[in-house]
Amino acid sequence: MEKLALFFCMTAGVMWAGSGVAAQHFFAHSELDAMDLTAFRMFCTSFIMAAVTLSRGHWARNWAVMKREPRLWGQIVFYGLVGLMAMHFAYFEAIDLGNAAVVTVLQYTCPAMVICWLAFRQRAWPEPGSALAVVMAILGTFFLVTGGRLDALSVSQDCLFWAMASAVFYAVAAVFPKHLTGRLDNSFLLTWGMLFGAVASWLMTDHLNFLDFFHAELLPDLFVIVVCGTAVAFICYNAGLAYLSADQASLTTTVEPVASVLLSYVLFHTTFGPVQAGGILLIVAAIAMPTLWRRHVRSA
User: Fold this and answer.
1) Can you give the pLDDT of all 300 residues of the chain as single tens digits?
2) Half-sphere exposure of 208 (CA within 13 A, CB side)
3) How far is it, in rounded angstroms, from Cα 199 to Cα 6?
4) What single string gives the DSSP state of each residue in 86-102?
5) CA atoms within 13 A on the CB side of 95
6) In the chain, N or C terminus with fewer CB closer than 10 Å?
């Protein structure tokens, strides 16, 4: 069962990576922009997560919690706008300006940002494994964006800005709702967070017409972004998570940036020099380092 659970979690990582690569293809063949795609995906995701919650028979229980604690609505709105919407927009905008492989890898500096935030909040140095992960993430980012040359960036400044912004908002989306997930199902929380973010992003678009998405050449991209990258990935990850420890689950997150690099190479022939490849490996290793360090300490 553990091997099957690992397979499910790794499948989710590949699906998430595929959604980024599909977004790159989408922008190359459409005049729609990052905010348009953000609004469309978040509306679709909201409906999918609502269906998941209803199918599990959990809607009434979660709704009862919201009726008892109406102040939670304000927190969900914040989560939807500052966490989910901002993360989606920054991620798609960075891909539009650059490529999915670089952006996805840079977004996964998020765990290092969370480590720094928790250390600052707790006024304590992180454990050695976490501190090493931060150093590796910083070095990996430096090597990836410079390619070893201090006089030039291997990606545009705008792409770098939005990619790092997506990592910051990813950290917000990861940390902020921790106190909510103990009271509400994750699918219910995503239903409303995505809906609030979708409405906000739709209001920021320039008269978005959803019919513009339904062109034959864009439908495969939308299927990967919305269905595979949302519904299938969510179901697979949660199915695997039920049978894995927290450490095992955290290690599976290294699959997404690796899969994104491989898919970008196969589909778009995106290549990296030796220094950039070393940076990618450092960032991927930084994701796993805290877990591997804890395992080493326990075994010692």
Assistant:
1) 677 888 888 898 899 999 999 999 999 999 999 999 999 999 999 999 999 999 989 999 999 999 999 999 999 999 999 999 999 999 999 999 999 999 999 999 998 998 888 888 888 888 888 899 999 999 999 999 988 777 677 889 999 999 999 999 999 988 888 888 878 998 999 999 999 999 999 999 887 888 889 989 999 999 999 999 888 888 888 778 777 766 666 677 788 999 999 999 888 888 899 999 999 999 999 988 988 888 878 886
2) 22
3) 35
4) HHHHHHHHHHHHS-HHH
5) 31
6) C
Residue 228 corresponds to which tokens in the numbers above? 């595979």
